[in-house]
């Protein structure tokens, strides 16, 4: 099965209530990226394969990006993707990490990705300004949204790097999930004593 068929099938599964024309425009934009289109409105528009002129394709991508209904459906789309990717997994391994989005370090992305055979598949992500980066409230809201997306009986293993501290691990434990975290520097750990 080629990539276009997989994309078409996945989009139809995760966007069942999306308007048909909006779904077709989204498919065309994603297909444009798959074909090497740059991640800009003009780059995507220029790389859409269609009989319409370049100007019309750029306008099509512009309308898609500014479509308020599409933005309202993002949560539903993420839930559909989470169900599709992690729905059958009892203990999915999910990587959570922060990334810089721009050179000025004004915007940051927090992403939860499912570990799947040597690659990661995005389950959910959010963009935050610097003053919200790595804050307990931001983490709590993010993890609660992630929890709502996963099946009720799912007990994921959250993998995070050394940038996450004790409040993060307490949050993960409060969700009755497991975690693996990397430590560095002067971080102290203590082994839990086992009853013998």
Automatic annotation (TrEMBL):
Stored SUPFAM superfamilies: Ribonuclease H-like
UniProt-listed InterPro entries: IS4-like_transpos, RNaseH-like_sf
Record PANTHER family: TRANSPOSASE OF TN10 (PTHR35404)
Name of the protein in question: Transposase IS4-like domain-containing protein
Organism: Vibrio halioticoli NBRC 102217
């Amino acid at each position: 099965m080629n990539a276009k068929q997989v994309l078409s099938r996945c989009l139809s599964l995760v966007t069942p209530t999306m308007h048909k024309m909006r779904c077709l425009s989204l498919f065309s934009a994603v297909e444009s990226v798959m074909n090497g289109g740059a991640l800009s409105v003009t780059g995507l528009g220029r790389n859409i394969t269609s009989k319409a002129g370049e100007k019309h394709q750029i306008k099509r991508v512009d309308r898609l990006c500014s479509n308020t209904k599409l933005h309202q459906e993002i949560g539903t789309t993420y839930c559909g993707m989470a169900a599709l990717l992690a729905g059958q997994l009892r203990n999915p391994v999910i990587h959570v990490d922060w990334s810089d989005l721009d050179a000025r370090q004004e915007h940051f992305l927090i992403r939860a990705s499912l570990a799947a055979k040597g690659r990661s598949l995005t389950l959910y992500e959010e963009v935050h300004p610097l003053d919200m980066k790595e804050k307990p409230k931001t983490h709590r809201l993010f993890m609660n949204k992630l929890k709502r997306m996963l099946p009720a009986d799912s007990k994921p293993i959250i993998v995070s790097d050394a940038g996450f501290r004790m409040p993060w691990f307490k949050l993960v434990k409060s969700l009755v999930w497991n975690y693996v975290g990397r430590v560095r520097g002067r971080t102290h750990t203590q082994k839990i004593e086992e009853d013998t």
